[in-house]
Fold these 2 entries.
Entry 1:
Amino acid sequence: MNNLLASIEQVTLMGPGPSCISDEVFKAMALPTLGHMDKDFILIMDGIKEMLQKVMATKNRLTVPVSGTGSAGMETCFVNLIEPGDAVLILKNGVFGNRMFDVASRLGAQVDAVDAKWGTPILIDSVKEQLAKKPYKIVAIVHAETSTGVLNPIREIGNLVHQNGALYLVDAVTSLGGIPVPTDEIGIDALYSGSQKCLSCPPGLSPVSFSDRAVHAITNRRKKVPNWYLDMNMIIQYWHGANRVYHHTAPINMLYGLYQSLYLILEEGLEAVYQRHMKYHTMLVSELESMGLQMLVKSGYRLPMLNAVIVPDSVNEVKIRNELRNTYHIEIGAGLGDLAGKIFRIGLMGHTAREENVIKIVSALKKLL
Ligand code: PLP
């Protein structure tokens, strides 16, 4: 029988995630599997919680990785906080804001939206105007909109959300580990991320964090959380306390990978990690602009880890991506939704954000374009 795994190639992952994984993380994932209630594994769980608090800049006790990808983190935040009829406001300017709207609507919330044009940030004045109309239970926003490469102003919007009295829910799937996510300083009440972006661990885990206010809302619900697997009231009993209670079998080796990737980030130092992302983003943009290419997003609102580049009219976008993958063994991302066929998405996330990768993509694009 032919084993397909034997022919897997090394591809440089320069798309919207997953990102490149370091050998240290792969080695950690290949360590012997312990039992999910094993005393040594529980120490590793505690280490993960502690390191996540550092990377998320929070003292929130309820800071744990959810078993599942970033979308599971999104579901976890909404399903634990929303009760039918709750007023929820979603600020959306891309695919992942739309996904939040869908998730919140399925839970029976009364969902309003403030939209901004894709490729531009959420406008603070339009949020102010909407929040003046009524009180909300939750206001949600995507920090780093991966579908467009836009950085949203979460700090300024956070001030408005607090004046409204709402809980502030932030998607940090792409931002965490690439730019600062000052959870406590901004007063974020529910935060979720994903392992496969700037944390540079394979996809499969979604770190989440809840403030005391959010925990109060979760523990004082009128009805049980309608999703058994993601119910924080139960999950917390596996992740906290002297006597751990089994909930579901934790993905042990994935958690080894997350442990190691957080360890590497903290060993390098958060500031150094953020500077590295910015340095190679700046280098990439200046190289692309010198080739005559244009960025979709205006300077000042660009994400360092996700670079949206306008595809020139004369260029066949699919052909270029296929050539990059087949000839140069580089993956980049395509545009989604309204931006399909119009942009390339070049990721410089986590372990991908290195000089050799900028040189690799720029020299390949120079040959192809
Ligand atoms: N939110 C953002 C901003 C994302 O970029 C993604 C994935 O790209 C998600 C949520 C969903 O994460 P996943 O695909 O890991 O479920």
Entry 2:
Amino acid sequence: MSERFSPKVVPLVDLRAGALPVPAAANLPGGRITANGLLTDTLGRNLRDLRISVTDRCNFRCGYCMPKEIFDKDYTYLPHASLLSFEEITRLAQQFVNHGVQKIRLTGGEPLLRKNIEVLIEKLSRLRTVDGTPLDLTLTTNGALLARKAQSLKDAGLQRVTVSLDALDDAVFRRMNDVDFPVADVLDGIRAAQAAGLGPIKVNMVVKRGTNDQEILPMARYFKGSGLVLRFIEYMDVGATNGWRMDDVVPSAEVVQRLQTEFPLLALAPTSPGETAQRWGYADASGAHDPQAGEIGVISSVTQAFCGDCNRARLTTEGQLYLCLFANQGYDLRSLVRGEASDADLAHAIGHIWTGRSDRYSELRGAQAPDTGGGARRVEMSYIGG
Ligand code: SAM
Ligand code: SF4
Ligand code: SF4
């Protein structure tokens, strides 16, 4: 059955207009915060990773993210004037970097739909971390436009890409993107990204039980030994429109178990603090990790909370700062950046917001009965970015 006809889709609760105002910088309590590369929230977590959504539009209609029933021809996207300009994004990004951000990921919606995205990439690629090193600058895409754009993205200064790909089987893939897009074109895009040197490339597969879980093994076979890292993502209860049910989640432990029926795997250590994926390496005949065969990752956002070292902030297309993927409100930075605020005021505001952060939704969800997804007031993934 097409996800389009699923009875589980829940009407959209539009949270876009409900941003929290940032108090006038001069009035913020707690003294002036200047950026010194080390911002710590109430749970001791440093700000390191900024995800910037550059558009709320997409050329796919994945049922778990932008179901067609909601995101149809009558859906109102943000008007162009609401979007942060490239100059505004770069000015804000600079302040985040001054506060310690080392990695910026462009996302959306589909980021390659944002006109002249290369111009933004060029601007961001000139930023330097507080240690003077270039940023880890990356982008998550559905790959539809990648074959066309890989080289210009690389030339603009993008370092690497993550490509979302939920199936190799063309019929399954077309059903999941729900716009009849052929898988061959995404695979071409991945090859173009490899050829352009946009690596190491990660491939993200959201696993939904009964929809694409039969693709777990074929995907692993295809990417094993390719130099690409395939990551299996638990279907999350993000947003409120996808009609999420726990029954649809394939826990990462089950994914690993299924893979181990064909490939011996061994757990690998994390490469950096705050890493979202648990790494598993393909083992050789002696049981040691075979680097040629590579590794896979599992992202267990539902069954194994990882809020403890969550160092990610999210900037929406219209300039709201979200402190958690599951938050129901963001802070309105756009009115600051479009107003009288100086760079020092912006830095102070960001510092003030992050130092007050206590979000740990996934951990709390683990401790409570699972949400049915029903009328939850949560921001949509396509708006906040993944
Ligand atoms: N359009 C781009 C893409 O699909 O790669 C970037 C934006 S998309 C919102 C970012 C990531 O979020 C994708 O890898 C997508 O698979 C993932 N995602 C969206 N909805 C999800 C959900 N309900 N559960 C888990 N992952 C989800
Ligand atoms: Fe579009 Fe990405 Fe959401 Fe799919 S997951 S609908 S490609 S934004
Ligand atoms: Fe971070 Fe929120 Fe996800 Fe926890 S639930 S890991 S705080 S984004």
